[in-house]
Request: fold
Amino acid sequence: MEQGTQTWTENLQQNPNLRPLTPRVGVEVIGIDLASVTNSELDFIIDAFNKHAALLFRDQKLSNEDLIRFSRDLGDLDEAPVNEAGKTAVPGLPELYVVSNIRDTDGKPIGSLGAGEATWHSDMSYLENPPDASLLYAIEVPPSGGNTWISGMFAALEDMPHELRKKVEGRRIKHDGTYNSGGYVRQGLQANDDPRTCDGTLHPAICAHPSSGKPVLYLGRRRNAYVDGLSLEQSEALLDELWAHATRDDYCYAHEWCVGDLLMWDNRSTLHRRDPFDADTRRLMHRTQVKGKSSPQSA
Ligand code: OGA
Ligand code: MN
Reply:
């Protein structure tokens, strides 16, 4: 994704099947049916993904098997983690993760994240090898709310004030494993709100993106984050400054969902969050996750 504004524009002009979602991150891919992707379409999708970090496909009609088949074309898939109510994935389809506020007849949530806000994060960044990509497919959407936001971390790093970049260069950040983005304690862990002692993994703050080698900001999640080697006060101050910068509107795309939309994002070069929505309305999304092929490497 080596791109000054020039390369970005040129790339889009050469591709009538790509429509930018924002000037800095994300494109809509037009005219591809994800239930029957050809080899050349797959090459096109992977190239667009590497360049634009988030792809939107509208008007899809995907069975669970179609979603898994297309996701597998992008790499090996993670098995879905158990949700906050201790439920595992859809029987027979261990790669499918359900994101939903809907409850079953016993009153247990059928999926994860409820109806509240999901705060900014990149998926499972507390792993040694976090997932490369996530795909989210809309099956039922509420009449309002529940928008998913993407923020582009190449652009955030390109624009980062020199003084701030100097403070973070060469540093590692701890990515908390205790809480998910909905604020729920992950299965098998105890609540812990001390960033110094919480369960988590250190990753370089500025990583080389595996597809291009280009440096990218890697923040993961704010809660319980900790800049290795600093006092807690210094770490909190630096993280607040970094997060305020990385989530500026200039780098963001907010997606308003329609049934049949599929949004996929690169966890190595974007953050995402979700707006809350009315808990009395229904939202049902199916998600797959492409396994991480490597651990984040310093740029
Ligand atoms: C996710 C996630 C946000 C949403 O599935 O990883 O953060 O909009 N979902 O449901
Ligand atoms: Mn997520």
